[in-house]
Amino acid sequence: MNWWRIPALALCLVLCGGARDPILVPEISQHEIQVRQGFTGADLLLFGAILTPEGNRAAGDYDIVVLLEGPARAITVREKKQVAGIWVNASSTEFRSAPSFYALAASRPIAAMVDGKTAAIYELGLKWLQLSPVGVIDPAEQKRFSDGLVDLMRRQGLYQQNEKAVQISGQVLYQARISLPSSVQTGTYTAETFAVRDGRVVASAITRVTVRKEGFERLVAASAEQYGFVYGLFAVIVSISMGWIAGRLFALI
Amino acid sequence: MDVYLPIANLSVNGLVIVVLGALTGLLSGMFGVGGGFLTTPLLIFYGVPPTVAAASAASQVTGASVSGAFAHARRGGIDYQMGGVLVAGGVIGTGLGALLFRVLQSLGQIDTVISILYVLMLGGIGGLMAHESLGVLRAERSGKPLPPRKRRHHPLVASLPLRWRFYRSGLYISPLAPLLLGMFTGILTMLMGIGGGFILVPAMLYILGIGVNVVVGTSLFQILFVTMATTMMHALTTRAVDIVLAVLLLIGSVSGAQVGAQFAQKAKPEHLRLILAVVVLAVAARMALGLGYRPDEIYTFVTQ
Q1: Among B152, B136, B132, which Cα is nearest to B144's?
Q2: In whole angstroms, what is the distance from residue A142 CA to residue A125 CA?
Q3: Alpha-carbon distance A107 to A88, whole Å?
Q4: CA nearest B259 in A: which residue?
Q5: pTM score of the predicted model
Q6: Which of A33, A234, B1, B56 is deepest in the core (most CB within 10 A)?
Q7: What CA–CA distances, in Å, run from B105 to A19, A114, B219?
Q8: In this structure, is residue A5 part of a structural domain?
Q9: DSSP letter, residue A219
Q10: Which residue of A has its CA nearest to B227?
Q11: Does A39 sit within 8 Å of B4, measured CB to CB?
């Protein structure tokens, strides 16, 4: 055996660490959120384990980032300015894919975990949200609009970033709680978990959550969408009969 | 009491909505106005999306005006001919309103346009009403009778071609005037979910010069049909009528309307008109301030 082979092998073990990357086994407390009468939001527990490919405890100093994203949609963001003493929507910009919900939970501040480039690639943090602006827009202006949107959504609880929300126990189990407000959109949500080590995302895994209306709420939403005429007629009949009944009842008093 | 609104997609406190409905119902019963001019802004303030607020408030106004309209019908307080013309105009107006709604929405200027319209009209009408009712009250106190009003309707109305006799209103004017008025309120109903009563009643009094005994009944009659048309129009175009929200508002407003009607029978018409003038002016002032103050939200978004 040549003498140089041993350090080369050792070097390879370090550099070709890919084979030693851990795997993530993610799970969510519920895979379906039913929006029914009295729905005031939901609390999700996102948890899982960090294992070696062989299924043993990975036992490394991994950082965990959990990202829950709602269905993306195209939106127009408008900005108000004072024109002749009146606040009006003065300018607007379009984004092709703004998530309707975005919640990030991490075990440590993102900035201390990865560099900007990596954070941008994996969209780790509201700062790095890829909203896909439409048309050529000057970056400063674009940033103003996206900051405005993020701030608005944050205050509505639809965008969240909590960099201390992931707890890791025994270097193997992690858990994070994310709460969804009642104003969440229906659709399929993706929960992506990332394991980060030495400024590098070494593993990721995806699970899904479905948010959907059930029962009466589903019936109402579906009929308003599909049978507008009947639905409208029903609303009119309800309002007239309620008004009429109230009139009758009060006449008795 | 948390209630989830399936179209607005959020959960609200049901009691707050019922109280809100009761408040506007009270106004409705007392003055024969729909009260929608309060409901919609308050719902928006509460976090309900503007389109859903406007669409659902319209059906609340329907409910609040039903029993009032019935009561006035029994008393013979409705000029059906005049009401019919107003309704015809109103239905055309809701159609135009739906188009306008879409255009303004895509331009992002709907809120501003509506607020400016409100400030101008509410300010003008409220001022007019306050002036008149104060005049009447002052004259009563001093014991001097007011000089009788010479002109029954506005000279512009008299210049319109084609005249009809409206017996119950005691008028001989062109039907184009009430038709245009109806159209105008129809547009407003579609845009803001208001019944347009607060504009209709003074306009009928001061512009058309309709007899006082049929004003409120005829206005309720028009509001009833126009808000029904509006609900249908919203159900077919914006699909934003939230039946749960509407029922909550209705529970409050139909009972509020009854209580309001009781008040109205006991109070003096001049006092009522003065109170309405004050409410209308207050809303106008609030809206004017809203236009000038820095809004809470500089950035807003709509889905495409």
Answers
A1: B136
A2: 17
A3: 42
A4: A250
A5: 0.76
A6: B56
A7: 55, 42, 29
A8: no
A9: H
A10: A236
A11: yes
Distance from CA of B133 to the nearest CA of A (A): 30
Cα distance between residue A20 and residue B281, in whole Å: 74
**CA-CA distance, B43 to B105, in Å (whole number)?**
18
Find the DSSP H helices in B146-175: 155-158
pLDDT in tens, chain B (304 residues): 788 888 888 888 989 999 998 988 888 777 766 677 778 778 887 888 878 888 888 888 888 888 778 877 877 777 888 888 888 998 899 889 888 888 887 787 777 777 787 788 778 878 887 887 888 888 877 776 656 554 466 666 666 677 777 766 666 777 777 788 888 888 877 776 666 677 787 778 777 777 777 777 888 888 888 889 888 988 888 888 899 999 999 999 888 888 887 877 777 777 777 888 888 888 788 878 877 787 777 888 877 6
Residues of chain B positioned with their CB less than 8 A from the CB of A246: 63, 67, 254-255, 257-258
Residue ranges making up the domain that contains A185:
20-214
Q: Which of B26, B243, B251, B255 to mutate to test the interface with A (most CBs of A within 10 A)?
A: B243
Residues forming beta bridges with residue B10, ordered by sequence position? B5
Contact yes or no for B4 and A182 at CB 8 A = yes
- CB-based contact B254:B25 (threshold 8 Å): yes
Please report, as a single letter, which amino acid is at residue A165: A
Cα B105 to Cα B101: distance, rounded to the nearest angstrom: 6
Rounded to the nearest 10 degrees, what angle do helices B80-107 and B110-142 cross at?
140
Check which CATH number belongs to the domain holding A71 and give it: 2.60.40.10
List CB contacts (< 8 A) between B46 and chain A. none
| DSSP annotation of A195 | E
The answer to whether residue A61 is domain-embedded is yes
Question: Smallest CA–CA separation between A68 and chain B, in Å?
Answer: 19
Whether B131 and B270 have beta carbons less than 8 Å apart is answered as no
**A243 within domain boundaries:** no
Tally of domains in chain A: 1
Q: B183, B208, B197, B202: which is closest to B98 by C-alpha?
A: B183
Residue A60 and residue A40 in contact, taking contact as beta carbons nearer than 8 Å: no
In a domain, A25, yes or no: yes
Domain extent listing, chain B:
2-292
Residues A218, A94 contacting (CB under 8 angstroms): no
ipTM for the predicted complex: 0.81
3-state DSSP call for residue A97? strand
